[in-house]
Amino acid sequence: MKRNNLTTAILAGITGVAGIASVSNAVNLNSDGVGQVLVYPYYTVNNGLNTLISVVNTTDLVKAVKVRFLEGKNSRECLDFNLYMSPYDVWTAALLETDAGGNAKIITNDTSCTVPAISGQEFLPFAYTGAFDDGIGSSLERCTEGHFEMIEMGTVIGADAIAATHVGGGAPSSCATINGNWSPVVGQWIVDSTVNMVAPDGSGGLFGSASLIDVAGGVDMTYNADAIQAYSTSLQHSDPGSLLPNVGSGNDDTSNIFNNGVVVTDQWNTANIQAVSALYMHNNIYGEYILDDSIGANSEWVVTFPTKFAYVDVDNSPFVAVPFEPFTVGLAAGPSSIGACEPYAVAGLYDREELSPTTPLGDIVPSPVPPGIDPTIPVFCWETNVLEFNRSGDVLGASAILGSKNTTHLTPGFQEGWVAITFDIATKNTNDNVAARTYGGLPVTGFAVQRYVNASLAGGVLANYAGVFAHRYSKSVL
């Protein structure tokens, strides 16, 4: 069917001045869930939980993928490696607490090629200790929760594609060849990482999910990874220990977002990570909670800022000075335990019948309040935060569901209802783009988890249930 002139005019109108081509040539968050960069908002091995990981290659190409696990306080690396995915491949792994406790390890029975072989590998603190000390602490416990990302580096071709491709028995032809390519000094990719590699086209073709499994309780809490398209069309094939690529190292400086049904396209000035952050910019987070004692219900929100490190941490920032817009607080220099605490407000709190608490919303502040922080202002101090909804007085320690140590506790005063969290767009905003368009809020992603424990069934049988709900948001783009 031939497209008529009216259809063409409508498409040109919704894509803006930049034209129709910009839709495919700008970084975008694909609502269909398939992309080039996958951002998984949370992992944990706390509270007896395991995190099960899955990533799928929907294409007929061999994909080179950087896999990176980032601890929750300041997004310093706990484990990096390269994954080489066969056409139509699925790669799976699990994160568990180490036998000694207090740290995470990864295990996998999957045969897809990784460099190095990583099953049984414990997470490492090298990125935030010694010469890389960021002042937040050197404990391995930092690596027990956080978020992770998978980034397509390029397409493998030729003999190396054959080596990475699964054959009749279900295993790749030669993972030894792939690993040998990264051998010190003599490996061909050590000498030239572009051999038998082709730059990506930006479409990616990857999708993924993660499950937070409570084995003892029989509960599975599953979510889908965020999928970013058109992040880069440059080859970024790096060695397994490299901190590149990251979410800000792509070659696309232009973003596409939907705002009130209209495509907004902007070219960003100072650093390409601004284009990725634009996809996540929100001024409000909306979601539900339930704390019903009769069904043993608890609720927690994961609130992750996947690009925050670049705006607050001078050691990992592309900007001349930190903090950089839209973030307003930099990581404190020297010994510190409070992180970069970004204020927010509880803008709305209701039960299911539209009732608000008698306490003014401005006086509802999650606890505990970090030392040196105004006790009347709520803050998220970490890159991956957990906001736990608690019954009155129960506001200390790790969270009940996820066992998070990066947690604050909010007492809503009702058993169930919904909450709106807002970031002050007067102070948290950025117009660092060619059009000087102002994006209000902060770049945030995450989800809510609800768990129910029902011991009142016939015969006193214990039954556990849980659900995961992606956050709802609003945008402010002016």
Explain what you see.
The structure is a single chain. The chain has seven helices and 31 strands. Strand 6 and strand 7 (104-107) form a beta hairpin. The protein has helices at 5-15, 21-25, 158-164, 175-180, 188-191, 273-280, 309-312, and strands at residues 28-29, 37-44, 49-57, 62-71, 77-85, 90-97, 104-107, 113-115, 145-156, 197-198, 206-214, 219-224, 226-229, 254-259, 262-267, 281-282, 284-290, 298-304, 342-343, 345-351, 379-380, 384-389, 407-410, 416-422, 429-430, 439-440, 442-443, 445-454, 463-470, 472-474, 476-477. The chain is globular and about 70 Å long. Mean pLDDT is 91; it is low at 1-23. The chain is mainly beta and 478 residues long. The chain has two domains: 32-229, no CATH class; 281-477, no CATH class. The longest helix is centred in the N-terminal third of the chain and has 11 residues, at 5-15. Strands 1, 2, 4, 5, 8, 9, 10 and 13 form an eight-stranded antiparallel sheet that branches.
Q: Give the helix/strand class.
A: mainly beta
How much of the sequence lies in strands comes to 35-45%
Q: Quick one: biggest sheet?
A: 8 strands, antiparallel
Q: What is the C-alpha radius of gyration, as a whole number of Å?
A: 23 Å
Task: State the end-to-end CA separation.
Answer: 38 Å
What is the molecular shape? globular
Oligomeric state, counting identical vs distinct chains: single chain
